[in-house]
Amino acid sequence: MLYLVDVEHRDILPDGARTPLKTYSRGSMCLISLRNGAAISVRGRFEALAFHIPSALFIELFEEAGEPRIDDLTTCRGINDQVVRNIAAALMPMFDMPDEVRDTLLPHIGLALSAHLTHRYGRSPIQHLSGTGQLSPLQEKRIKAYIAANLSGGTPVDKIAEACGFSVDELCSGFLSTTGQSVSEWIASYRMSRAQSQLSRTGETIARIAAECGFPDENEFVATFTRAEGVPPAAWRLRNRH
After folding, report:
1. What is the largest CA-CA distance in the chain?
2. In the predicted model, is pLDDT for residue 35 greater than 90?
3. Distance between CA atoms of 218 and 7, rounded to whole angstroms?
4. Per the confidence metrics, is the pTM higher than 0.85?
């Protein structure tokens, strides 16, 4: 659910007990599993976009589109996700469109939303390395996709391992054996590559790029970038702007 106004509600547990009332701010979202049912008690005004995504769709993404397999989605409450907000902004005008136009556009937006949720919040079933100690191509894709989708959050190795179905030791050894880089080395390289792409192709501020690429703050980003490239981000952007 993506909240369109500030909302107050509490969960109703299976035994009928109610959790404390919580406020969810406009633009935040909640992501929950309906496998065991879900119920809430609302106080006051409630306006939200609700998305119901069958679990069978994630199986279809795995089988038909080559997306990594996932078992479930991480439960999240009241979090901010710019991609989901952007998708919702694209959906809102469709309520006033003719049916034939809306029906043509909706599958594409639905696929984009499902792929984003898979990459960012998907939880893989228990995984094992091959006999050579390496990752399979799909396992490697899943790990890198998860890192890319969660780059702004810092991507600690234990969270990557948990989401992708590995123990920390297996993830680290398998990733190194497969890519020739440690997980932290690959993340550092990917952060720099993403930052360069943002600098050259967008007008985002240096501070915004630093946050989106997972740097602690703008100063750390500037220092790291300058060490790697020999010039600060702003100067590099002037030379490489597309």
Report:
1. 63
2. no
3. 33
4. no
